[in-house]
User: Which sequence fits this backbone?
């Protein structure tokens, strides 16, 4: 089998072939390396690699398979890790000049679990500085381009992972999400991103241990691959106050789901989110094409009153928990975006903080009650379609100004506040041939049921030409100039220089 053919197989098929000894983990690794060499220069999705260790581990996995040893669920599969999570012996910068040369001695908990399941950690994927912003541009590595047009943004903050997946550079990759960072790049790159229930994928690094806003989670090209990956990521870790015992068998293999048995609510904006006329029209078109799949479709939304104000305060709380010490002692090491976020947080009072928590609690209760009437909520994933990566965030939509640089992410943070699981599926393209993403929201703690419904929807979309997952033109990408040679690629190069 050719390198190209291996790169385009699903993670599940690769693992099946490895288990049958029809292919070797060494072949899978070398295929990924060849694809990275050909495609990554034009996109800059993968920013650091540990090739020597990966080759050693691939060889060990090959020998274990040949001996007939019991293999881990991810044995022989090559993965990428978002550059916010520590990887032993592999450079981890968080997209910040503070950590430009940092090489961790230990893996973070999630990476350790993935290695224990047999995954081969080859690469780090690009992200904005400390994941702040729905873009993938930072002063250490520069920008990552969209796989359908490298002059455009891939969104973020898990943009490097989404681009690597879309182009077959990696079969699986990790991400994280506060205001949509697993979902936003999935929508703009034509892959699948899943925000799980907080704590399902534990993180020992939570600065605010009881906050449900930040989560870790999986990204993949298909829902079954994603569910397979999640089963290895999920677990209990006492260092994360939100974690609990997990039965990973709930996630893989997924149960069958009859879409015709589901009652679905569709909403263009959750009643409050700014959404462009283009996205509203695309959403209506797609709902018209898939409406027949479901038992009943109603136009409705839970009451999200106060969502903008609550998210602003709670997001700022997380920024202060993570970055205030650096702001106090070494502000020159922080980019202007982080400084602005920290100073916003310092402007809120304890009364603001108390009110934000009360509003979030009320929203969570209303969303939970809403699900007594429906099984799923469908919405657009993003408020606008892809824009140039030189624009880190739009400040207006259709001529109407936005209240902050993250206000355009309200479709995502509405769900974040409610702490419900959500997944983004690719659903065709727009008039420019750029991916369009649908967000599916499930019941409270209903991760497995949501994934089963998403898998059924994905299969159904494949039979509808206008709703199929789009594929980037790899040959065209291989012939394009290097991302670092594009005008503006050094736009943040001097941020954080002391």
Assistant:
């Amino acid at each position: 089998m050719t390198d190209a053919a291996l790169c385009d197989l699903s993670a599940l098929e690769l693992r099946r072939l490895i288990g049958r000894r029809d292919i070797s983990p060494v072949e899978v690794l070398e295929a990924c390396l060849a694809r990275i060499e050909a495609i990554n220069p034009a996109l800059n999705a993968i920013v650091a690699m540990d090739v020597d260790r990966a080759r050693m581990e691939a060889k060990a996995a090959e020998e274990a398979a040949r001996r007939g040893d019991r293999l881990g669920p991810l044995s022989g599969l090559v993965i990428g890790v978002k550059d916010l999570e520590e990887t032993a012996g592999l450079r981890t910068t968080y997209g910040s000049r503070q950590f430009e040369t940092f090489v961790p001695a230990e893996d973070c908990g999630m990476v350790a679990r993935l290695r224990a399941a047999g995954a081969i950690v080859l690469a780090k994927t690009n992200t904005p500085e400390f994941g702040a912003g729905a873009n993938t541009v930072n002063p250490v590595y520069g920008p990552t381009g969209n796989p359908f047009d490298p002059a455009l943004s891939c969104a973020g903050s898990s943009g490097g992972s989404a681009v690597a997946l879309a182009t077959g550079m990696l079969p699986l990759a990790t991400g994280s999400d506060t205001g949509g960072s697993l979902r936003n790049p999935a929508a703009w790159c034509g892959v699948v991103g899943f925000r799980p229930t907080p704590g399902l994928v534990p993180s020992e690094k939570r600065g605010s241990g009881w906050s449900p806003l930040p989560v870790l989670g999986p990204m993949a090209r298909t829902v079954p691959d994603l569910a397979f990956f999640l089963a290895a990521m999920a677990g209990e870790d006492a260092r994360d106050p939100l974690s609990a015992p997990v039965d990973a068998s709930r996630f893989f293999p997924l149960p069958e789901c009859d879409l015709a048995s589901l009652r679905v609510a569709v909403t263009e904006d959750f009643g409050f989110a700014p959404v462009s006329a283009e996205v509203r029209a695309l959403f209506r078109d797609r709902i018209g094409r898939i409406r027949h799949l479901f038992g009943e479709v109603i136009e409705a939304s839970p009451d999200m009153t106060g969502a903008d104000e609550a998210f602003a305060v709670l997001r700022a709380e997380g920024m202060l928990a993570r970055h205030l010490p650096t702001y106090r002692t070494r502000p020159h090491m922080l980019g202007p975006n982080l400084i602005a976020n920290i100073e916003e947080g310092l402007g809120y009072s304890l009364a603001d903080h108390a009110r934000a928590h009360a509003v979030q609690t009320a929203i969570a209760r209303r969303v939970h009650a809403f699900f007594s009437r429906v099984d799923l909520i469908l919405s657009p994933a993003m408020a606008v379609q892809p824009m140039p990566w030189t624009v880190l965030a739009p400040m207006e939509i259709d001529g109407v100004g936005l209240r902050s640089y993250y206000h355009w992410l309200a479709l995502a943070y509405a769900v974040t506040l409610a702490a419900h699981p959500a997944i983004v599926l690719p659903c065709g393209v727009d008039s420019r041939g750029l991916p369009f993403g649908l967000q599916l929201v499930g019941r409270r703690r209903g991760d497995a049921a949501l994934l089963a419904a998403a898998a059924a929807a994905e299969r159904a979309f494949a039979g509808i030409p206008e709703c199929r997952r789009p594929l980037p033109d790899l040959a065209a990408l291989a012939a394009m100039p290097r991302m670092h040679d594009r005008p503006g690629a050094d736009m943040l190069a001097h941020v954080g220089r002391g």
Summary: The mean pLDDT is 96. The domain at 3-485 is CATH 3.90.1300.10 (Amidase signature (AS) enzymes).
